[in-house]
Amino acid sequence: MLQSLSRTAAVVLFALAAIPAARAADDQQLEWKFVTGYPRPMEMAIVSGDPSKEGPYVVRYRAPSGMKWSAHRYPDTREVTIIKGIYWFANGESYNWRDMNEHKVGDVLTKEAGQPYYGWARTAVVIEEKGMGPSAIEYVHPEEDPRNKRKPRGSSSE
After folding, report:
1. Burial, 75: exposed, middle or buried (Cβ in 10 Å; 0-12, 13-18, 19+)?
2. What residues have CB less than 8 Å from 1, skipping those under 6 apart?
3. Dihedral sign, CA of 31, 34, 35, 38?
4. Does residue 126 surpass a pLDDT of 70?
């Protein structure tokens, strides 16, 4: 009987662990949006939680082939899973392709809190990140922050 209960508990735990993945298994069901602070044409979708609020969250990013992520950091540690494509990734403050490592579907990486990272999408990619909010992106070099490149409406170039 104890063995039967153990099997039942294992099945229940497995099913519970699969709920978020099953819920968002189809990227077409997610609500993809351009997000302030991230360069276009990169899009983000919230799978669960809210990265701007206290507590756990899961987000996905999708980007076309050739998309570059400038050096940036987060206040929280993140677990990164490559869902689709080939993603090159490295830690450091300056973009250097020679320091980057190639990661493929199923690879899991860790981005430590406060450490700078940069990346490049060798192919179109979907990347899932899990963390504890509140969280926000901070660029190592302010001139690479897309929020600093936007021109106010109505401004003229005289």
Report:
1. middle
2. none
3. positive
4. yes
Place of tokens 């050739």: 66
Nearest C-alpha neighbor of 42 from the set 66, 61, 65: 61
What value does the mean pLDDT of the chain take? Answer: 85
Query: For residue 147, how far is the Cα from the chain centroid?
Result: 18
Q: Determine whether 60 is exposed, middle or buried from the number of CB atoms within 10 Å of its CB (0-12, 13-18, 19+).
A: buried
Q: Do residues 131 and 53 touch, judged by C-beta distance below 8 A? A: no
Query: What does the alpha-carbon distance between residue 121 and residue 65 come to, in Å, rounded to a whole number?
Result: 5
Look-up of token digits 């302010």: 142
- Give 19-77 pLDDT, tens digit per residue: 344 444 566 799 999 999 999 999 999 999 999 999 999 999 999 999 999 999 999 99
Three-state SS for 10-35 is HHHHHHHHHHHHHHCCCHHHCCCECC
Contact residues for 27 (Cβ-Cβ < 8 A; gap 6+): 45, 60, 62, 83, 84, 126
